[in-house]
Amino acid sequence: MQPILSSVLLQGLGSLPGDPNILAVATDSRAVRPGSLFVCIRGERADGHAFAAKALEAGAAGIVAQHPIPGIDPHHCVLVNDPLDAMIAMGANYRAGFHPLLVGVTGSVGKTTTKEFCHAVFSAFGKTLKTEGNQNNEIGMPNTLFRLDADTQYAVIEMGMQGLGEIEKLTRAARPDGAIITCIGHSHLEQLGTRENILRAKLEICEGLPDGAPLVMNGDDDYLPGAVLRPGLRRVVFAINDPKAEVRAQRIVSRPCGTHFVIEDALHGILPAFIPAMGLHNVRNALSAYTLATRLGLSAERAAAALADYHTTGHRQHVVEHKGVTVIEDCYNANPDSMRAALLTLRDYPTQGKRIAVLGDMFELGAITEQAHADVGTLAANCGVDLLLTVGEAMCAAHESALAKGVQALHCEDRETALRLLTERCRAGDVVLVKASHGMAFEKILEGFYSAFSV
After folding, report:
1. How far is CA 200 from CA 53, 68, 112, in A?
2. What's the CA gap between 437 and 365, in Å, rounded?
3. Residues 6+ apart with CB under 8 A from 215
4. pLDDT tens digits, residue range 20-49?
5. In this structure, are strands 24-26 and 21-22 parallel, antiparallel, or unpaired?
């Protein structure tokens, strides 16, 4: 964060005596250093208001709080209705001082992967800032904006949500020059009830776009092509299957090292492309990044070539070769759409051994929870899974439907049981998919397998 006067950062919120320069914004008192502004966030396990005094002792220039705090000089405390909204407002105030070409990414599935493809593409043209990890909420997105500086030429901002109205706040603060909506899936059904409401929530990204901005949309999605946009936006459709799409991926060939395809672009002709990832979903994610960059005026040839510079993050379909076993790490998150994509990738992965899937519960599916998990078991069978290990109460339905299809399926009481069975039954030459919602902590299975497995 570059130094900014508190009067500028806190515009519309309040003021601090002496109008000090703010050098950082912190929501964790342990990260406070002299010149920081400490924002008191009430979380599930801790209330930031309880750490305000500690922040001042560490040199904080001021406190943003929801209510007066005993023992804290009120002159050094800016009171706001909602500290999360205050974070967004400060992010907007800080962002107003910089003028990179900034793009937004949202969607039910593939946001983070698409953001990484965008980062690879835009980085080919200049210094590019990106959202780190999945820091895409009311805290993470402002923190990303606070990392803008005078040398930033491009910025890729991921925007997530839990309910209606949240993306609108984020996009109005970030003010993107263009945006991508990856797809309208089934995650957040528990909160929003229907996919129509999920579509409404994702379309809120339009509220921060200027007239004439490109909104890049997945033509293979069953909701997005018919979505009604506000007047003045430029809809640009990418697809694999939709013959009417402006940008298409064709002649797709997957190999263990990645995927080759050609881009058929109505504006720029035919271009070769390669991504170091497998799966049609990743081809779509890459295609969306290329489409957005070119519709913002960047070179089509350089954008297509830059897709090869993509790097996966965390445990998102990261392929690891371990003592002759190919492990597809994909346990950062899970929902019906990403689970389908992962199983199709497992199906298409060449192997001389077994295809093994270790699958855990998918969260936040509401009324469709049982059916969605049963569908996973059926899909595992259709994708040629030789051994299915399931963990979690909801995954019992997947276990039962896979058994009914003739798959060797075992339901495990816990991660430790799944790890033991995987280690016992896995052999060199096998391909293993490990996938679950993040709360299932399946990274512990990966850690244990790498430690315990030997040929």
Report:
1. 42, 37, 20
2. 11
3. 178, 179, 180, 181, 205, 206, 209, 229, 233, 234, 235, 236
4. 999 999 999 999 999 999 999 998 889 999
5. unpaired
